[in-house]
Write the structure tokens for this entry.
Amino acid sequence: MRLLLVSLWALGLAARVGATDTGGPSHRYAAPLHVECMNRSSETGEHIQNERQEIQWIPFPTCAETDRPLEFHYGVEGSQNCTIPSVSDAFFHLLEFYIHSDAPLSCRLPARPRAQVDILNEPQPAQEYIPLVFALAGTLQLSHLHVSTRMNVLLHTTPKRRIRAHDTGVLDSGVAYSTSTLDESASVKLIIGDPLPLRFSVRWFPTPELPSTDGTVMWQGMGGHVYASTVVYVVLSFLAGAVVAGAWFYGKVLPERLRGRGLGGATPLGAGVGGNGVGNGWGYSKRID
Ligand SMILES: *[C@@H]1O[C@H](CO)[C@@H](O)[C@H](O)[C@H]1NC(C)=O
Ligand SMILES: *[C@@H]1O[C@H](CO)[C@@H](O)[C@H](O)[C@H]1NC(C)=O
């Protein structure tokens, strides 16, 4: 069986070589990848654009652990903590949008390091990015938020022939999502001024594909083992949650919010929320499976 898997893997590799890397620099193993996110209005949740209609990207909030904005490291798996020391009023309102999926916590990572070529009169090649959405789960209460702070981060690289275990590479895609969303002990109760302790568990995949080998679900990533069924499950639930939440938002929350604004709702989500409606509305449409 093992021999069969190895030959399948070798076949797959052979098929992929040459079909991928388009040139340009690659990230070194463990190179820092700075997370940048869309700047958003804390009033409306809409992204902010400059005068040229370009989205404004700002660093992810600074983590108390490192005293730097959040960064991941190319190819490095494991757990990583990022405690935002004190949630500001504006950030708290943004968290309400994120948790409600009214606005995504849309971030990005550099696909490659910035090109260092300096050819006279030639414009620098544009930096390429991959999107990284943080699907933050939680519930809204009238006076506070519950935020599920344990998050998985899955990052894929483009396929390439790896010569060394910790080879260089280019990012392909990624996603981050809260886990243990029904587990109170994995969430924090948050009011303005509180710290937000985010706990990331980071895994890397050496191709864009989800792990499955000819129906066999166990698969070796860059580090440990994962089970394909788990990854497929979380990705599908995430997508299902996003679709349901989107439909619900545009069908119900947005109209209610618009009405609420006219009536001068106290918080962005004050109108139409009620004490219990919301908690059951989004938290767990995600679990229909
Ligand atoms: C984000 O946009 C707001 C509103 O335009 C601005 O006040 C704020 O400084 C921006 N944030 C950063 C980090 O540039
Ligand atoms: C992250 O914080 C938790 C406590 O919340 C701690 O147990 C864990 O060791 C920390 N992990 C790292 C990598 O610092």
Summary: The mean pLDDT is 77. The longest helix spans residues 228-262.
